[in-house]
Amino acid sequence: MIEQIESIRSEALVAIRGAASSSELEALRVRFLGRKARLPLLLREVRMLSDAERGKVGRAANEARAQIEAEIEARAHALRVSELDERLARERDDLTLPGDPPLAVGAAHVISALTRELEDIFIGLGYSVLEGPEIETVHYNFDALNHSPTHPARDESDTFYIDAETHGGEGARLLLRTHTSPMQIRAMEAHPPPLFVVIPGRVYRPDSDATHTPQFHQLEGLAVGEGITLADLKGTLLAFARAVFGSEREVRLRPHFFPFTEPSVEVDVSCFACSGRGDLADGSRCALCKGEGWLEVLGAGEVDPNVFAAVPDTAANTPGYDPERVQGFAWGMGIERIAMLRYGIPDLRLYFENDVRFLEQLR
Ligand code: PHE
């Protein structure tokens, strides 16, 4: 047996040293060390030998195997080096060739880019950015926001409800949020006052025409603390209007109604196409504001005390939202609406068709 082992060993070493490529070497590894190779088979037979033989033969076989393994490793390393050298010599780059033309570079979609710009404006005013769920409950979307039980927005024709079994009555029923305002409640549940947050996100309503798409984006704002008034709201939104539409802009508030703010207002920005005059230099009527001099940009108001009362006091928001102690304002703006005004694009659907020829013009 010792002779057999010696002959396998010398045969293997000659073959390995002569291997001309990594693949040839791999074939040799299988041939000499693989499961069905002679040496491993021999090793398995060692335990059937007499005590005197077993030690000697076993040692010889193990040594032979270790040497073959080491030789394969050494040869593999040498082959890898020479194969790499060969490839580098063959594939040397010609640095005098012209470079590849640059690939088309992508960019953020106009709605994403504008959302980030708006976030940045409010971050600059000390706000934090929060996001929240698009699938909401009736509780957060309507009840906690002081909607009367018969408010028309609750109607099946104005809200996408989700057909799913829920527990906890009508308030637990699921829907696609119709506005980002439910995040006012979630933000107050999670954080104590003073609170200054903006919440961008998708919202859903069953509307579809040139100025309404079933899915669109809003940026909600909420500021709560002691002694925050409507004057603070106006100053904040004036800063926003000037950052987005130009430093000459003015804002005006018109009375309105929302269930969750009192008083509620609609906020107009002076028209940037005609500088608020309503007509252009040549005397024609301004097409953007239709001669009004003002553009409606968002809804807002002072947070209704009933909304504060709907926020439970918890460890997370201690000292809580006592309407006798804290006041605040909120607003909600349609991001597509801001984009339509700013870029003069009258059809909302263009934003969602994702025709690159359109989107490229707004980069
Ligand atoms: N959620 C309202 C809407 O979608 C906008 C709004 C937000 C109004 C916050 C007042 C305060 O129309």
Any idea what the shape is? elongated
Rounded radius of gyration (Å) = 37 Å
Q: What summary fits the major beta sheet?
A: 7 strands, mixed
Write down the secondary-structure element order: HHHHHEEHEHEEHEEEHEHHH
Poorly predicted segments: none
Chemical compounds bound to the protein: phenylalanine
Averaged pLDDT, please?
Answer: 93
Q: Strand order, main sheet: write it out.
A: 1-4-5-9-8-7-6
CATH class of the largest domain: Alpha Beta
Structural domain tally: 2
Describe this structure in words.
The protein is α+β, with helices and mostly antiparallel strands and 363 residues long. The model has no long low-confidence stretch (mean pLDDT 93). The radius of gyration is 37 Å and the shape is elongated. A 7-stranded mixed beta sheet has the order 1-4-5-9-8-7-6, with helices on both faces. It has a two-stranded antiparallel ribbon with strand order 2-3. It is 39% helix and 18% strand. The protein has helices spanning 2-18, 22-33, 38-45, 51-90, 110-124, 138-141, 182-190, 230-245, 305-309, 335-343, 350-353, 356-359, and strands spanning 128-129, 135-137, 174-176, 195-204, 215-225, 251-258, 261-270, 294-303, 327-334. The structure holds phenylalanine.
